[in-house]
Amino acid sequence: MNLELMLPLCIYLVLVLGVGFWASRHRTGGNFMQEYFIGNRSMGGLVLAMTLVATYTSASSFIGGPGAAYKVGLGWVLLAMIQLPTVWLTLGVLGKKFAIIARRVNAVTINDMLWARYQSRAVVVLGSVTIILAFIATMVVQFIGGARLLETATGLSYQQGLFLFASCVLLYTVIGGFRAVVMTDALQGIVMLIGTGALLAGILIAGDGLPNLVHQLKEIDPKLVSPQGAGDMLTQPFMLSFWVLVCIGVVGLPHSALRCFGYRDSKALHRGILIGTIVCALLMFGMHLAGALGRAILPGMDSPDKIMPSLMMEVLPPWLAGVFLAAPMAAIMSTIDSQLIQASATLVKDLYLNYLNPRQEKLEVRVPRLSLLCTLILGTLVLLAALQPPEMIIWLNLLAFGGLQAVFLWPLVLGLYWSRANGPGALASMVCGILCYGTLSQWGIKVAGLHAIVPSLALGLAAFVLVSLLTPAPDQRVRRLFDQN
């Protein structure tokens, strides 16, 4: 075990745990669910920006994305920059209107908003089941990424790294709730920025500058410096699919959309859009460029998912590598905690309180205990599932993200901006979207070479519009609620 690496990393993990305990001791009181699941809507602009970026930036972005850039080359760096407007899109499309309506209906979860808009139990149940299943899959990916990071960089076994990483994340999330999640996200966003910059500087120094690194890539394979990339995988249908999957479709990710519930005021929203877009651009460019240039530093990597920790070990002194090992750890932890707290909210608020506890008995005692217990149980199940990891985790992560988008994108967006949208239309869109996505993904069917998400979203949109127009319009009370600014 490399103690020079472990010591600064352990200090970072202790700091994160300290933030979680601080959050648990500084709750503002009042309604438990408002506090535990959305932090009493108190985020400022900087925290909003950092928590949204950190939530979106995951193991796929910091481990899988650079791994793909390592294999494909500089063309993948250009492709990755498609993600630059994700914060602007999420907060710009959903932000203000989402927050106003969420306060009117006292919404704590995404499914609270769906119920207020569509008044359909089927929509809520389908949305809840999708969130839980997809989040379990994506959290498995994050746990695998954290464990591989520790395995590669510190000499711990995969299982030892997994248990160390998982224990830390579960502890501060269970104890601190949403407030701990967003505060640690802000810390982790800053760490990611510093770590990305340090690693990129180390690579440029070790490779004698950018021109020399590009020249070495060209000697390995000229396609590594071409827009099409090695293997000619960056075709037009692939790029269109990627643009939909990791840019436009991100608006439909529930754990990102939920951040629109928690900011304090309009000033915080506007600052969050500006800061978040800048931070997202720096992180995406830096991480993927490091992965692509890393091919020149370490040309013989057998597993692309190990390129980031391997580069840290190669180009930075051991103690400094230990400090900046926290950057990809932060990316992974910030996604897990967000999904874990929302999956727990879905189980407790959307399913248990609405359908399994009709008498609403002793909620002041039962809800806090159930929330903590559900968070712990879900995290433990994900930990057990991560014991047998697959290769190239970026694809598993994108598969789960696509499923969430196929279900939630149109019900969220059209529910806010189309007054004729109704429950049958939303349900038809969700069912058609997920069935199409699941069928095309399972059988590897590519319509015109496109990723399954593109035809799935197109079919979901068509089903939503058609069924909404053929069925009765929503109640006037609902329309007035969502039409008011």
UniProtKB/TrEMBL annotation:
Q: Which residues cross the membrane?
A: 6-24, 45-63, 75-94, 123-150, 162-182, 189-207, 240-261, 273-298, 318-336, 370-387, 393-418, 425-445, 451-470
Q: How does it sit in the membrane?
A: Multi-pass membrane protein
Q: Does the keyword Thylakoid apply?
A: no
Q: What is the top-level taxon of the source organism?
A: Bacteria
This chain's source organism reads Aeromonas caviae
Q: Which InterPro entries match?
A: Na/Glc_symporter_sf, Na/pantothenate_symporter, Na/solute_symporter, Sodium:Solute_Symporter
Its cellular-component GO annotations read:
plasma membrane
Q: So what family is this one in?
A: Belongs to the sodium:solute symporter (SSF) (TC 2.A.21) family.
Q: Which UniProt keywords apply?
A: Cell inner membrane, Cell membrane, Ion transport, Membrane, Sodium, Sodium transport, Symport, Transmembrane, Transmembrane helix, Transport
Q: What is this protein called?
A: Sodium/pantothenate symporter
GO biological-process terms attached to the record: sodium ion export across plasma membrane
Which reactions appear under catalytic activity for this entry? (R)-pantothenate(in) + Na(+)(in) = (R)-pantothenate(out) + Na(+)(out)
Localisation: Cell inner membrane
Annotated GO molecular function terms are: pantothenate transmembrane transporter activity; sodium ion transmembrane transporter activity; symporter activity
- Function summary: Catalyzes the sodium-dependent uptake of extracellular pantothenate.
